[in-house]
From TrEMBL, chain A:
This protein's name: Hydrogenase large subunit
Organism per entry: Jannaschia pagri
Family of this protein: Belongs to the [NiFe]/[NiFeSe] hydrogenase large subunit family.
The keyword Mitochondrion is annotated on this UniProt entry: no
Chain's gene name: hupV
InterPro entries: Ni-dep_hyd_lsu, Ni-dep_hyd_lsu_Ni_BS, NiFe-Hase_large, NiFe/NiFeSe_hydrgnase_LSU
Automatic annotation (TrEMBL), chain B:
Reported cofactor(s): [3Fe-4S] cluster; [4Fe-4S] cluster
Domain annotation Cytochrome-c3 hydrogenase C-terminal: ranges: 198-269
Protein name: hydrogenase (acceptor)
Gene name, Swiss-Prot/TrEMBL: hupU
Record's subunit section: Heterodimer of a large and a small subunit.
Region (Disordered): 307-330
TM region positions: none
Coiled coil spans: none
Reaction(s) the record says it catalyses: H2 + A = AH2
Keyword Ligase: no
Source species: Jannaschia pagri
Keywords: 3Fe-4S, 4Fe-4S, Cell membrane, Iron, Iron-sulfur, Membrane, Metal-binding, Oxidoreductase, Signal
EC number: 1.12.99.6
Location of the NADH:ubiquinone oxidoreductase-like 20kDa subunit domain: 11-175
Record's subcellular location: Cell envelope
């Protein structure tokens, strides 16, 4: 057996190191290490609860609005407050734009460039992959960067800037959109739709969002999505990197009329309710002191000695003792989209990318609808008084999956603040029962021989679109 | 020139912000300026062993290093070891890497407030021992000594901001390529003066409210946020309201206060970020270059003279009283 350490692992957000034990040309077991600890949960102790709205977005520069939204929901929950319906809608638009931009960034800048590598020279699709996706040079990557920057104009309108906005508050939005903002956002979205339909899908968004079977999906041949599916077929990416096949979603975009996608846990073809009370973070293999605990009682005390029994700063969140995979695929499979349900059964690299492509199409359509229903004459802010004593939880769906903030307030200050981020779920280390995290499970059996031994591993890791800065925070 | 970009202990948001550069976009800027990206953690193809080989080439002088850009604070904990951030795959802390690479670089650029001064990563008791490259908060001397100078005689260039504006980065890089950045082009905290000679207050859309001290009382009110909501745009450096963010935005345009994210120790406000600390009802931290008595005298005069339109709109979340231009008599 040989041991291979892969790092620095780039084109993921933040720091990642993966250790592979390889036997007979395949990964026998993997250890995933999140090698950066900053201590945001410690920083928040004793502060004015409102400071969480400034501090937690700065956990992550790519999921910043997700962190904002989770913090605002947690504080609103503690205060028993509900923002006006139109404020919830505006916050959802802001958040949806970030999620959409993140997926486009992932596909074009993080995931696809691996297929332009020289190692794939000679494959029938390689020249096209080189032309479209060579890192920093590909025509597809460059067009995506340009279109994304323009899409972000919506964050300039509703959020002042991106990342790190303070626009989302427990009581609503700090800026009341005007009629002119509304039509400008509509125009920005139309331009982004044109980009997606021309470059990514080569067809209408509705056509892609209307796919229902894996066979239809695999036969999609236009746009960069078509190029990906051609590559996926050639390299059998469907069978690569199959995860635990337990999919969790908190339900995206909490609003006055419910969540835009359904919450739940999908396992063995059935969706069950997710009880956030069943979440606990196990610390057995983390460089963290203390016992497994629910986030309301969670402790963040780093082990300064970095004991050999552990291998990551990441805690290991479990739902009723089990791991869960989170992300776009989970979200739409739990929501009941027929293609996502079918891809959830497939469960590998192709399925995760498919889930994200599906979400790009569905989110763009949803955003257009939301912008049409913005009513600038309505209220976008309400007064909220935070309690001197209390607790609250904010559960949202970030681009990469389920994100929760749990806050306890005592004497008007933060007594405890715990964050469980999407990649904390996906890239968690083993727990007391020895159960590997979802990525660790997905890597087992991955081919790892020859000159480019880590190539398949890289596809598996990047198919999760990890955000490591959120993971440990 | 070549550019090596490393992400130390930060959020990656300055790179994400940089990708929002427009007219031209960041990749066109780099091409146009002749900047060759040796490696960037979010953008480059090379991973794992390929990167370790490249870094070895740089350390051993086989590949010259023109510009080293560091994004994120550098953590020194636990106990001064830097092991809170091991640079993946290398078995060494980022602290060691930064100290080894900086002396080899033609220029060292700190991208964002974390890399410049420690920033948000140093908040709340600084659990990870975060520092900036050449500053520990407002104190000179971070993980590099106060005397550190690049071969051109420049200290670390601090493109502070949380996040930093994409054009602050692209313009600094282009100016470095042109060789026109001297020590005089930097302010006393190492920030490029092309943006640090401005205040966030300049061109703030709330300036008319400021003139009359017509103040917002809650977030979403249109009035000036200095008196009640913690805004320190009159003291914060940055051309945030002169050049827009993401098309048309800025913090104050977004309806929330400037928290001086370009400054050392912005992460530790006196009270909370969105409430102005006051003594006997008078905000502390008035504009620094104006005698306090004059400010108070002018403020009370202008408050007394506030037109109804401005007073009413200041505490509204939208324009409720429009301006009424005089009509010429016919």
């Amino acid at each position: 057996m040989t041991r291979l350490v892969v790092g620095p692992f780039n084109r993921v957000e933040g720091d990642l190191e993966v250790t592979l034990d390889i036997e007979d040309g395949r990964v026998r077991s993997a250890q995933v290490n999140a090698p950066l600890f900053r201590g945001f949960e410690v920083m928040l102790q004793g502060r004015d609860p409102r400071d969480a709205l400034t501090i937690t977005p700065r956990i992550c520069g790519i999921c910043s609005i997700s962190q904002s939204a989770a913090a605002a929901f947690a504080l609103a929950d503690a205060a028993g407050a509900t923002p006006p319906p139109q404020a919830q809608l505006a916050a959802a638009i802001l958040h949806g734009v970030e999620n959409l931009a993140d997926h486009v960034t992932h596909f074009n800048l993080f995931f696809m460039p691996d297929f332009a590598r020289a190692a794939y020279a000679g494959r029938p699709w390689h020249a096209r992959a080189v032309e479209r996706f060579t890192a920093t040079k590909g025509s597809g990557a460059r067009a995506a960067v340009e279109a994304r920057a323009k899409l972000m104009h919506i964050t300039g309108v509703l959020g002042g800037k991106w990342p790190h906005t303070l626009a989302i508050q427990p009581g609503g939005m700090t800026r009341t959109p005007t009629l002119s903002d509304k039509v400008r956002m509509g125009a920005t979205l139309r331009a982004f739709r044109a980009h997606l339909e021309q470059a990514l899908f080569g067809d209408s968004l509705e056509a892609f969002a209307g796919l229902t079977t894996v066979a239809e999906f695999a036969a999609w041949s236009t746009g960069d999505a078509g190029l990906f599916l051609e590559i996926a077929k050639d390299l059998d990416l469907a069978a690569l990197g199959i995860g635990p096949q337990r999919y969790m979603s908190f339900g995206a975009y909490p609003m006055f009329n419910g969540r835009a996608t359904k919450p739940g846990m999908l396992s063995e073809g059935a969706v069950s309710r997710v009880d956030p009370g069943d979440i606990a973070e196990d610390l057995t293999r983390s460089w963290m002191l203390g016992d497994a605990a629910h986030p309301y009682d969670g402790l963040t005390e780093p082990d300064e000695n970095m004991a050999d029994s552990a291998y990551s700063w990441c805690k290991a969140p479990r739902l009723a003792g089990r791991t869960a995979e989170v992300g776009a695929l989970a979200r739409h499979a739990v929501d009941g989209h027929p293609l996502a349900r079918a891809l959830a059964v497939e469960g590998g690299v192709r399925a995760r990318i498919g889930g994200r492509l599906l979400e790009i199409a569905r989110t763009q359509i949803q955003l257009e609808d939301w912008v049409r229903t913005i009513d600038p004459s309505a209220a976008f802010m309400s007064d909220v008084t935070l309690p001197q004593q209390g607790h609250g939880v904010g559960l949202v769906e970030a681009a990469r999956g389920s994100l929760g903030h749990w806050v306890r307030i005592e004497d008007g200050r933060i007594a405890n603040y715990q964050i469980v981020a999407p990649t904390t779920w996906n890239f968690s280390p083993r727990d007391a029962a020895g159960q590997p995290g979802p990525l660790e499970a997905a890597l087992e059996g991955t081919p790892a021989d020859g000159e480019d031994a880590t190539l398949a591993t890289q596809h598996v890791v990047r198919s999760f679109d990890p955000c490591m800065v959120c993971t440990v925070h | 020139m070549n550019l090596l970009w490393l992400q130390s202990a930060g959020c990656g948001g300055c790179t994400m912000s940089l990708l929002c550069a427009e007219n031209p976009g960041v990749l066109d800027v780099l091409d146009g300026a002749g900047i060759d990206l040796l490696w960037h953690p979010a953008l480059s193809e090379a991973t794992g062993a390929e990167v370790r080989d490249l870094l070895a080439d740089v350390l051993e002088g086989r590949v010259p290093l023109d510009i080293l850009a560091i994004e994120g604070s550098v953590v020194t904990g636990p106990k001064g070891t830097g092991r809170y951030q091991m640079f993946a795959g290398t078995g060494r802390s980022m602290l060691d890497w930064v100290r080894d690479l900086a002396p080899l670089a033609g220029h060292v650029v700190a991208v964002g407030t974390c890399a410049a001064y420690g920033g948000m990563t140093a908040a709340g008791g600084n659990p990870a021992g975060a520092m900036g490259l050449q500053y520990d908060g407002a104190l000179e001397g971070g993980v590099l000594s106060p005397d550190f100078r690049d071969p051109a005689g420049l200290p670390v260039i601090n493109i502070a901001g949380c996040p930093t504006h994409p054009n602050w980065v692209t313009e600094t890089l282009m100016l470095l390529v042109d060789g026109v950045i001297s020590e005089h082009a930097l302010d006393p905290l190492g920030r490029p003066r092309f943006y640090a000679d401005h205040l966030v207050h300049h061109a703030c859309p709330k300036n008319e409210f400021y003139e009359y001290k017509a103040s917002a009382e809650r977030l979403s009110d249109m009035g000036c946020m200095m008196e009640n909501l913690g805004c320190i745009g009159t003291q914060a450096v940055g051309d945030c309201n002169i050049r827009p963010w993401n098309g048309s935005g800025s913090c104050t345009r977004g309806g929330y206060p400037c928290i001086a994210c370009t400054a050392p120790e912005f992460e530790s406000p006196r009270l909370t970020f969105t409430e102005t600390p006051k003594i006997a009802g008078i905000p502390v931290g008035l504009p620094t270059d104006m005698p306090k008595a004059w400010f108070m005298a002018l403020a009370s005069l202008s408050k007394a003279a506030t037109p109804k339109r401005i007073g009413t709109n200041a505490t509204s979340d939208r324009i409720t009283v429009p301006p009424q231009p005089k009509r010429e008599k016919t």
